[in-house]
């Protein structure tokens, strides 16, 4: 039925309980209804959406049915509104003269004698509804046909297509006004088949006539381009397309459309001229390029030099991003070694050989600290050392560094299934690539978010440009700002960066892209603005057994004089050795393993003369701890211990610093410089 609501039945039965009873019975079969109070309101409620009408005999017997008859007469052609008349017992249509009059006025009438069974009533109502639904379907078909005709007329007009129909056996030609206009006729003028043939260019008459004859004989499509000579002598180009149809009397006719293609033909001619001119220019340009070829074997050499410099810059970018985290962790390691050696040296007084050995160990650790400054130079000379490696193990080894690189506000999720095969890869370069991807994801989430790292085996069929074989796919996805299509297309180009000046060289992704290709893999990026970015690093599965991972050593830190000192570091090994150094200097030391624990001690009223805190700690770093501690105790001296050469932007506090790794003497000097 049309509309969003179901069609309703109209009930006119003012006397007794007939109306309410009929409405209730209709409701039981799911048919909504409207009860009308009188004939005027009943006629007013009639409409195309009415399902059927139910009236009692006594209502219409002596009523003025002129308005109702007019409404019935005014129905559209598809409509024959069903009426159900409830007659009295023994008053069926065969014994009721009034029934003939009602049938003549109302047309589609069903008489139902009272009393009746509910089942009989429901059957009559459903029958009337089914008939009405078929009428609604007919209306929809008529409306669809009308819309189709209108759409066809609109399409023909919009496309400047002239419609025509030709009966070849008689030469009868029916044309639309637009078709006649294409042949230079006025709208009111006719166009016979003989006039159509006479209006063709003499060179095209035989070909067009033969094409029409072949289409009629073989029942094939008729298609032809031809010139039309207008009555004023001017020439136009036209194109006709038609198909054959067989009429009820068995005759074949052609039904088709014709369009004016004069402008297209002129454009094609112009295009040919332009093509010829272009070919001439191409030939000329080719000669110029060949003559300039000698100036190119120097340009090639320059490009090779540039590519070499690019490779070096890629290594610098990757190592530069890694240096901060590596230096911090390596300095923590040296911190534990140096502080314990420093303490141990006080217990071997008089043993020259032991003192010499300890001094040599201290010098070696100090040289290790200098090694962090040479990491970049070392990496510049390093070539790829490809071997079977356990990628899951490499990711696990990098997890702590990755978490330190992310800072607060970013959640890191890592999914590493067991039993994956080894990949053919350079371990350190893979670590750098992973760090680059994570740092890029971090920078794309200035307001925080989530980074997900996963590893899975994939087939080359999912990456058609890769060689056949098995691959491991590292996936790094973020919930950041994402990239538009233009930015994504340039993301792996060298020196392209969306970061502000000084924040990045634009070599990170190009380095990973080059590494993947060098290893026989690929880098895939997908992104949408506001929906984050997904990076996939494809690496070939190795045929050998994975190399054993080298376990990373632990990390460490230090402070020391006769003061009450609160020492804060989340690394237990560093805290233990540093507290030993301070107590050996005679200080009273309280140890805290987190910024929150330290704040709790300060808020609890602990008597503290000096706060010494590590900078890099989870959830709250040393800089934030210093700010909150001074908010509680403005005069409290704070000494910041850090393994970073430079603090991250926004954490450059005006605080005295103690560089890691340090020994007891450096710790004592730093405290002394505070004037305590």
TrEMBL record:
UniProt domain Histidine kinase: residue ranges: 325-543
Sites bearing 4-aspartylphosphate, chain numbering: 614
Domain PAC: residue ranges: 222-273
Taxonomic superkingdom: Bacteria
EC number: 2.7.13.3
All copies of domain Response regulatory, residue ranges: 564-675
Catalytic activity from the UniProt record: ATP + protein L-histidine = ADP + protein N-phospho-L-histidine
Gene3D superfamilies hit by this protein: 1.10.287.130, 2.10.70.100, 3.40.50.2300, Histidine kinase-like ATPase, C-terminal domain, PAS domain
Pfam family, one: HisKA
InterPro entries in the cross-refs: CheY-like_superfamily, HATPase_C_sf, HATPase_dom, His_kinase_dom, HisK_dim/P_dom, HisK_dim/P_sf, PAS, PAS-assoc_C
Listed SMART domains: HATPase_c, HisKA, REC
Keyword field contains Nucleus: no
The entry's keywords: Phosphoprotein
Record-linked NCBIfam families: sensory_box
Name assigned to this protein: histidine kinase
Organism: Limimaricola variabilis
The organism's taxonomic lineage, starting at the top: Bacteria, Pseudomonadati, Pseudomonadota, Alphaproteobacteria, Rhodobacterales
């Amino acid at each position: 039925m049309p509309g969003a609501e179901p069609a309703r039945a109209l009930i006119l039965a003012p006397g007794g309980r007939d109306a309410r009873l009929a409405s209730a019975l209709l409701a039981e079969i799911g048919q909504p209804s409207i009860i009308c109070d009188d004939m005027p309101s009943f006629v007013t409620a009639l409409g195309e959406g009415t399902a059927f009408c139910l009236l009692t005999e006594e209502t219409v017997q002596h009523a003025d049915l002129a308005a109702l008859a007019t409404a019935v007469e005014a129905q559209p052609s598809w409509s024959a509104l069903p009426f159900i008349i409830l007659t009295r017992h023994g008053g069926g249509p065969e014994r009721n003269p009034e029934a003939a009059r009602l049938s003549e006025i109302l047309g589609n009438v069903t008489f139902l004698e009272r009393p009746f069974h509910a089942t009989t009533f429901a059957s009559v109502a459903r029958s009337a509804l089914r008939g009405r639904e078929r009428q609604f379907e007919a209306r929809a078909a008529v409306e669809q046909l009308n819309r189709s005709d209108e759409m066809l007329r609109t399409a023909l007009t919009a496309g400047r297509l002239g419609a025509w129909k030709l009966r070849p056996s008689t030469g009868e030609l029916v044309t639309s006004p637009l078709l006649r206009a294409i042949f230079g006729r006025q709208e009111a003028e006719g166009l016979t088949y003989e006039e159509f043939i006479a209006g063709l260019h003499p060179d095209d008459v035989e070909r067009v006539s033969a094409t029409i004859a072949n289409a009629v004989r073989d029942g094939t499509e008729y298609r032809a381009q031809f010139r039309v000579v207008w009555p004023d002598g001017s020439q136009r180009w036209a194109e006709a397309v038609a198909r054959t149809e067989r009429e009820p009397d068995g005759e074949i006719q052609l039904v088709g459309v014709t369009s004016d293609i004069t402008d297209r033909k002129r454009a094609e001619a112009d295009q040919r001229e332009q093509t010829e001119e272009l070919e001439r220019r191409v030939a000329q340009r080719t000669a110029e390029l060949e003559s300039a070829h000698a100036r190119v074997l120097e340009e090639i050499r320059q490009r090779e030099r540039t590519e070499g410099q690019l490779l070096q810059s890629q290594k610098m970018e990757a190592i530069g991003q890694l240096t901060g985290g590596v230096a911090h962790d390596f300095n923590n390691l040296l911190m534990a070694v140096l502080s314990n050696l420093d303490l141990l040296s006080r217990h071997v007084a008089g043993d020259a050989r032991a003192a010499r050995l300890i001094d040599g160990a201290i010098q070696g650790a100090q040289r290790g600290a200098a090694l962090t400054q040479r990491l970049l130079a070392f990496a510049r000379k390093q070539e790829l050392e490809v071997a079977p490696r356990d990628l899951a193990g490499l990711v696990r080894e990098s997890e702590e560094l990755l978490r330190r690189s992310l800072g607060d506000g970013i959640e890191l999720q890592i999914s590493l299934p067991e039993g994956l095969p080894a990949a053919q890869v350079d371990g350190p370069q893979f670590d750098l690539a992973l760090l680059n991807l994570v740092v890029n994801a971090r920078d794309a989430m200035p307001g925080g978010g989530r980074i997900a790292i996963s590893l899975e085996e994939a087939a080359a069929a999912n990456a058609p440009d890769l060689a056949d074989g098995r691959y491991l796919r590292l996936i790094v996805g973020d919930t950041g700002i994402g990239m538009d299509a233009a930015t994504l297309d340039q993301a792996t180009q060298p020196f392209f960066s969306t970061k502000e000046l000084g924040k990045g060289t634009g070599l990170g992704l190009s380095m990973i892209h080059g590494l993947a290709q060098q290893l026989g893999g690929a880098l895939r990026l997908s992104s949408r603005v506001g929906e984050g970015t997904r990076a996939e690093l494809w690496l070939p599965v190795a045929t050998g057994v994975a190399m054993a991972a080298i376990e990373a050593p632990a990390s460490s830190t230090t402070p020391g004089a006769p003061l009450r000192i609160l020492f804060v570091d989340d690394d237990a090994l560093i805290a233990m050795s540093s507290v030993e150094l301070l107590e050996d200097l005679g200080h009273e030391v309280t140890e805290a393993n987190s910024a929150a624990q330290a704040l709790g001690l300060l808020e609890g009223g602990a008597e503290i003369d000096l706060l010494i805190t590590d900078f890099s700690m989870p959830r709250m770093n040393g800089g934030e701890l210093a700010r909150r501690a001074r908010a509680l105790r403005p005069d409290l001296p704070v000494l910041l211990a850090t393994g970073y050469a430079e603090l991250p932007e926004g954490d450059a506090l005006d605080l005295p610093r103690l560089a890691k790794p340090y020994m007891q003497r450096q710790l004592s000097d730093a405290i002394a410089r505070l004037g305590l």
